[in-house]
Predict the structure.
Amino acid sequence: MARRVKTAKKKTMKRKSAASRPLTQGYGSEPGFPISLAMRAGDYVFTSAQGDHEFDPAMVKYDARGLVVSDGNTLPPRTVADETRSALRSLDQALRLAGCTLEDVVDASVWLRDPRDFHEMNKAYGEFFKKNQPTRSIFRIDFMFDCRVEIKVTAYKPQKSPG
Amino acid sequence: MARRVKTAKKKTMKRKSAASRPLTQGYGSEPGFPISLAMRAGDYVFTSAQGDHEFDPAMVKYDARGLVVSDGNTLPPRTVADETRSALRSLDQALRLAGCTLEDVVDASVWLRDPRDFHEMNKAYGEFFKKNQPTRSIFRIDFMFDCRVEIKVTAYKPQKSPG
Amino acid sequence: MARRVKTAKKKTMKRKSAASRPLTQGYGSEPGFPISLAMRAGDYVFTSAQGDHEFDPAMVKYDARGLVVSDGNTLPPRTVADETRSALRSLDQALRLAGCTLEDVVDASVWLRDPRDFHEMNKAYGEFFKKNQPTRSIFRIDFMFDCRVEIKVTAYKPQKSPG
């Protein structure tokens, strides 16, 4: 969903219960998007999908079918491996806002614009997950943004108990 | 997955353990679909994807590629904003069966048939999530049903402790 | 993501905390893929998406758009119902590595290559989920592999408490 993480606003903690453990809290934001970049809910942290793209609503160009041809971004040419690493680094940044890292990821979803990018993405992805590897799904899909790969993860990081 | 929520049958609670807290329970059903509309599992509530559509298996029409052209629904013409609000209201109804509401949503997935609908959907979606905004992914996809947007959410709502 | 489950390597347990309950542990692997077939994280078990396919990177053939025409598999011709049952059986095997079964599934994602396969898939799928039915999403999508249906599930199975 979100592009490169630039700023992260800490939001007000929202308690869901009088109990000490349960809480949800969103972290990070994206101008123009009603989303958090990471959300803690109990022992889990969810992320918004990340891709290596920028997105200027005024600049988006669509083809006749409505597919995004350009989102107005001014990013330099880059490989699928570059994009994969960038997306995972953005996810790591988002997770860190919520008190965890890529090491705590337990499940991942990967989307590619072109199936032929699979092997290059798979190799770059593997650099980040050496042990206790997350489960994963991967599909070809049409993106809303001008990028070749997007990734979304769920992490598990129990909160420190208060006592 | 499911169309407008019309009826909701409370299903038999299924205990997974002798412990008091852990349980899973499905809520709501859809004729012809082996699914629940909402499922509580511990502190989380999952939903089936919802779109503003009807679906009559005998009436579905496909094009040469197998894409759904019409699902036989008799819904009036409506905007993407209308469909977005309808889907979110259906999700809220499903969540309420399981004891929570859209306010407890922590993660969302959104799918659009046409990327050009992004801005209108995004604005209507934002009306429902003003604070502690859920993480989100959004993609263009081909639906099984005759609609322009589908949404699925995960909520976090710890159960009241028995004591 | 993964093809037919053939071997399952038990991986080293990774404790995330000094507490007795919280832990994550990946189960099963797939040659060439940096993934686990199942991952326990606290009370939940995630799976990688499963389809009834094989996948030989050296044999994959793409069409002009980059879509997968053949993944080099030598599986016999089979129906969508066959593929659905095979995917669900593979998921059950993966879940069993992590100490649960299809009976513990609370949420499912289903993807089809051709929407016209919906009814046959839906019927076969229903054979596996008779009561307390999981929530579900279902979409048409382009696969990275040569199959007609893929399924991914989340299960809820609290760990036995140590005491």
Remarks:
- Residues 1-19 of chain B have pLDDT under 50 and may be disordered.
